[in-house]
Amino acid sequence: MRSPLPGGRLTMAGPSLSMARHRVASLIAVACAVFGGAAMVTATAVVGETGVTSHLAPDRLADAEILVAAPQRHPVAEDPDIPFPERQTLPADLAADLASVPGVAGAAADLTFTARLAGTAIEGHSWDTAALFGAPTPAPGAGEVVLDAETADAAGLHPGDPIALTTAVGTTEFTVSAVADLPGQGLYTDAATALGLAGHGAGQADLIAVDVDGDADTVAADVRSALSGTGFEVVTGDARGDAEILAGGTARSELIELSIALAATIVLLVGFITGGAISVAVAGQRRDLALLRAVGATPRQVRRLVASQATIVAAAGLVPGIGLGYLLAERFTAFLAGSGMMPEGLPVALTPASGLIAAALLLLTVQLAARIAAMRTSRLPATAAVAESRVEPLKSGRVRTVIGLLVIAMAITQALMPLVVPGEAAFASAATATLTAVIGLALAGPALVKIAVRLTTRKSGANTAAPAWLAANNGRAYARRTAGAVAVLALAVGLTVTQVSAQSTFTQTAAAEIAEGAMADATVTGGISAEELAALGNEDGVDAAVGVIHTDVLRLYETAGDEAADPLPALAFSPGIDQVADLDLEAGDLANLTGDTVALDAATARLWGAGVGDRIDLALADGTRVDAEVAATYGRGFGFGTVILAADLVTGHAGPRFYDAALATGDAAAVSAWAAGIPGLTVEAGATVPYTATGMTPDQWLNVMVTLVLCGYVMLGAANSLVAATARRRGEFAGLRAAGATPRQVRAMMRRETVFLCALAIGAGLAVSVLPMTLLSLVFLGEPWPQGPLWVIPAVAALTALIANAAIAIPTRKALRTPLTALAAAAE
C-alpha cells in the first residue's frame, strides 16, 4: 500500500513551480484574468474608500474647531445610513448652554438661506458666527446686510447702496451696511432676519459653531458629555466640512452606493473569468496531477498544489493590475467630478487599503477557483485519473446539468416578469435574467453542446470532408472545453446587448410618458418665490401657473422586524397639477393633493399594497417623518416618478423654499414678457419638467463606460482562455500530423471548430439577452424588438467572432510551424 506524500505545505512548492514552468501558456491566461480583475476591483475600492473616509474641507466655518449639528442621516439596520439632502435643525439656544462648557471661548448659532440678488443665486447667513470669529465690521442691523468683498464686486455694490433681495418668502428691500473680507461668499443679516428668511421654526438653527480656548479634543469630549442624550452630534476635524456643506455628505454616500453596485457585478465577472482561466490551466495539467495521484499524493495535496500554483501566477498579475487600478480610479473620479456626480474638491482616497482589498479578494477567488477546478481530478482513483488525463469524461455530470437547466429555467422566468410585474422592477428582473442564464449555460453547457453537435451533424455521412468530420467529433468529445468558451463569449454578447437595450428602453419609455403627459405651454426656471408664482398665475394671458419642487423622500417600512428605508426622487407640485400635466389618473383625485398627501405611481402602489385613502410612512428630505395619505394613483410613473407630493407637504414641514420651476399654460408670450422683468428667471417653451433627455446624461455615460470596461474584460478573458486552450492541443495536432493530416487540413478543422464555437456563443448570447429585452420593449413601448442602436447587435457579434478567430488561429498556426518531432515533444 502506497504511503501518501508528505503533507507539509512546503512540499507542494517544488512540484507547483516545476509544473508551472512547463505550462506557461495556459497560466498566462490566469495572470491576465487576475491583472484585469485587480485593476477593476482596485478602482472600485478607491471610489468606495473615498466615500467612506474623504471629506470636503470646511469653508465659511473653518475657524470653528467644533461644530454641533443634528443627525443628517437616517439609520438603516445592516446597511449604510442614508444621508438627508436637506438639513435637520437644532435649538438655537443650545449655543448659550455650550458657552458655559470649560474650554469653550464662545458659541454661536448659524443659519443659512438661499436668495437671489440681481438675478444671481447666493447664500445668506446669520451674522453671529462671523462675529464669533472677529468679523472686521459692525454687525448689520434690521433691514441691513453685510456683503463679502467678492459678492459686492460682482454686483457692483458699495456701502449705503439699496438692494432688493428675493428669498422664498418674497422680495425685501435692504441696505448694504458694509463690505468686508469674510470667509465664504454671500451676505450676512442679523439673526432674527436670517431666521425669517430661512423659514425655520422659532428658535431653530442649522448649526452651532464653537470657538475653543484650549485643546480641541478635550473640549470636544466635554461638549459631548454636555450633550449626552440629546442625539446631537459633535463634529471635529475633517468631518466639519460635511457638517457645513451637506452636499459633501450626500455625495460621499452616493459614492459608497456606486462602489457597492459596481462591486457586485465586477466580483461576479472576475470570479467567472478567473475561474474559467484556472479551469483551462488545470485541464492542461490533468496528466501531471494524475501521475501525482498514482505515486501517492492525497486529494488534498493535489488541490493544495493547484491552488499554490495558481496563487503564484496570480501574484504576477496582481501588482501591475493594482497599479493600473489606481490610475483608472483617478480618471474615473475625475469623470464623476466633471459630470457633477462627485463634488469638486473631495480628496480621492489613494491609500494602500484599496489595493490590499483587491489583493485579498482576488487571491481568495483564485484559491476557491483552483480548488474547485482540481476537485474532480483529485478525487478520482489514480488509474481513472491517468485514463482521463488525455480525454474528457464521456458523460457530463448529471447533477451539474440538472442544476444548470434549473438556473436557465429561472432566467426564463425572470425574463417573463415584465409581462406580470410592471414598473422599474420589471427592468431589474429582465436585466438580471441575462447573468442568470449565462450561469446556467456554464453549468449545463457540456450537455447542451453535445446536443447541438448531434443536431448539426445528423445529416453528415461518408462524404463529409475530413476537417468537418474532425471538427464535429472534437466538439462532441471535448464538450466541456467548448462549453466553457461558449459561456464566456455569450456573456460578453449578452451583457452588451442587455445594457444598451435596457437603458434605451427605459429612456424612451420615460420620454414617451413625458411627451404624452406634459401639458404646459411654458416653463419658468431660476428659483421662484411663492410671491412670484402667485403673480405669474394672475398675469393676463396665463391660465394656470403651478410650482414644482425637486426633492427626495424615504419610504419607511418594516422588514424582518427592522425598519427599512428606500430613497426615492420625487416632485412636489403646488395646487393645480391636473391643469399642467396629464398623469393618466387611475384612481382618486389630484385636486385632493394638498397638505399631508401624496400621489403614487399605480404600479408602485400595487407593489406596496397601498390604495387611495391608505397611509404610508415617509421621511422628507430633511428627515421629517410624515404619515401621508394616498390621494391618487397614476399610470405615468416612468415619466413623472414614483411619488408626487403636495408642495405644502414640503414647505409646511421644512419651511418656505423656492420653487425650482413653474409650469404655465396659456399664452407663452405673456409668460416670457412677465419673466423678462425679473432678473434671474428664464423661460422655455413647452414643459421642461420633468426633463426629457435629448442626449446622454451623466448616468448614461457612466453606464456606457462601465459596460465597455466590463465587456472589454470579458472579451480579454475569453481570448486568453481560448489561446491557452488551443496551445494545449499541441499533442492533438502532433497526432493528426503523424496520422497524415497536412497543416492545411488541421487549420481547416480549427476554422470549422471556430465557426461552430462562434455560432453557439453568439446564438446563446443573443438568446439570453434578446428575449428579455424584446419583452421589455413589447410591454412598455409596444414594439416587439430590442431598443437601442440596431448596429450594436451585429457589431458585438462581429467583434466576438473576430476575437475568437484570432485567439484560435494564431496559436494554431504557431504550433503547426513547429516540426513534428518538436511538436510531439512539447506536447508531452
Automatic annotation (TrEMBL):
The keyword Cell membrane applies. The chain crosses the membrane at residues 260-284, 305-329, 349-370, 402-421, 427-449, 483-502, 701-723, 754-779, 791-810. Keywords: Cell membrane, Membrane, Transmembrane, Transmembrane helix. Pfam families: FtsX (PF02687). Residues 261-381, 710-819 form the ABC3 transporter permease C-terminal domain. This is FtsX-like permease family protein. It is found in: Cell membrane. Its main location: membrane. The keyword Chaperone does not apply. It comes from Glycomyces tritici. It comes from the Bacteria. InterPro entries: ABC3_permease_C, Membrane_comp_ABC_pdt. It is a multi-pass membrane protein.
